[in-house]
């Protein structure tokens, strides 16, 4: 079954796009079929996948507003070997246009339902705000991966995001849950980092990924070459961390599927 994850945080600069691009490439390295959806008008995930956003004739804007089918807009990331539903500045207009469209909160959900069976994982790179685009992502996904730095203000922002996720779960998407919290730009030598990390474990327990993404120069350099870090420098700490994250996500998914299967078997037996 296709797993759809929204990578979200209303705070900018916390590694959402970096995580989407590098997690997509790492999942492909484990033989998974992956679609990366760029839902940010900045188009950084598109550029980081090696696709020139300025040369695109069709983007996710055309899909959300009904001007094109999703199959017409998909582009292969040659560096990462995953499919991308790209974005550029045109997407800014989509949020305004969608306000007058029917089922405006479920436009992305309807689009992704057409291709779900073709992929093992769909990753949605959300914009750094809680707007109509982010609402569409949260209505369309199964769960949310929250990226965050271990800093004081990040905890306050996390509380607001969790509240929004709970509201959308109650009103729009009863399947929605927090898949995991990913600590990015992690530096264990910093005492504040360790304090915030301990608080995350206290409040969210196993939902905090064991894998942490370290501060890494090669990880920061890779987007300027339009490559995932595992292509740019496979031996770097950043590449190793994202491969570990992919493995952790796959194991969690397999464990969850096994639990559901056991529950179904139990019901049949009874």
Quick recap:
The chain is α/β, with parallel strands linked by helices and 270 residues long. The chain contains twelve helices and eight strands.
For the terminal residues, how far apart are their CA atoms? 26 Å
Please tell me what the overall shape is. globular
Supply the helix-strand structural class: alpha/beta
Low-confidence stretches: 266-270
Gyration radius, in Å: 18 Å
Q: Biggest sheet, open or closed, and with what strands and sense?
A: 8 strands, mixed
Question: Which descriptors would you attach to this protein?
Answer:
single chain, 270 residues, alpha/beta, globular, disordered C terminus
Q: What does it look like?
A:
Helix 1 crosses helix 12 and helix 6 runs parallel beside helix 7. Strands 3-4-2-5-1-6-7-8 form an eight-stranded mixed sheet, with helices on both faces. Helix 8 links the parallel strand 6 and strand 7. The chain is of the alpha/beta class and 270 residues long.
Layout: helices, strands, pairs:
Blueprint: E1 3-8, H1 16-29, E2 34-38, H2 44-48, H3 60-64, H4 70-73, E3 75-77, E4 82-85, H5 91-98, H6 107-113, E5 121-125, H7 132-140, E6 143-148, H8 152-171, E7 177-186, H9 191-204, E8 208-214, H10 217-221, H11 229-232, H12 237-269
Parallel strand pairs: 1-5, 1-6, 2-4, 2-5, 6-7, 7-8
Antiparallel strand pairs: 3-4
């Amino acid at each position: 079954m296709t797993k759809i994850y929204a990578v979200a945080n209303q705070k900018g600069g916390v590694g959402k796009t970096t995580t989407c691009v590098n997690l997509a490439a790492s999942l492909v390295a484990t033989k998974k079929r992956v679609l990366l959806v760029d839902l940010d008008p900045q188009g950084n995930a598109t550029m980081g996948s090696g696709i020139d956003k300025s040369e695109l004739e069709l983007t996710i804007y055309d899909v959300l507003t009904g001007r094109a089918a999703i199959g017409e807009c998909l582009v292969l990331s040659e560096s990462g070997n995953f499919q991308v539903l790209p974005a550029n500045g045109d997407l800014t207009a989509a949020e305004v246009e969608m306000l007058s469209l029917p089922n405006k909160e479920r436009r992305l959900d309807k689009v992704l339902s057409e291709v779900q069976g073709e992929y093992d994982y769909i990753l949605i790179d959300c914009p750094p705000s809680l707007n109509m685009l982010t609402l569409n992502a949260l209505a369309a996904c199964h769960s949310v991966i929250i990226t965050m730095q271990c800093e004081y203000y990040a905890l306050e922002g996390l509380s607001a995001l969790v509240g929004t996720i709970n509201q959308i779960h109650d009103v729009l998407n009863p399947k929605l849950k927090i898949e995991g919290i990913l600590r990015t730009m992690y530096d264990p030598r910093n005492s504040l980092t360790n304090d915030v990390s301990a608080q995350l474990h206290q409040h969210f327990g196993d939902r905090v990924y064991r894998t942490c993404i370290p501060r890494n120069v090669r990880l920061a350099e890779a987007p300027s070459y339009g490559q995932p870090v595992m292509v740019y420098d496979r031996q770097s700490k950043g590449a190793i961390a994202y491969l570990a994250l992919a493995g952790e996500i796959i194991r969690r998914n397999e464990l969850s599927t096994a639990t559901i299967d056991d529950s179904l078997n139990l019901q049949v037996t009874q």
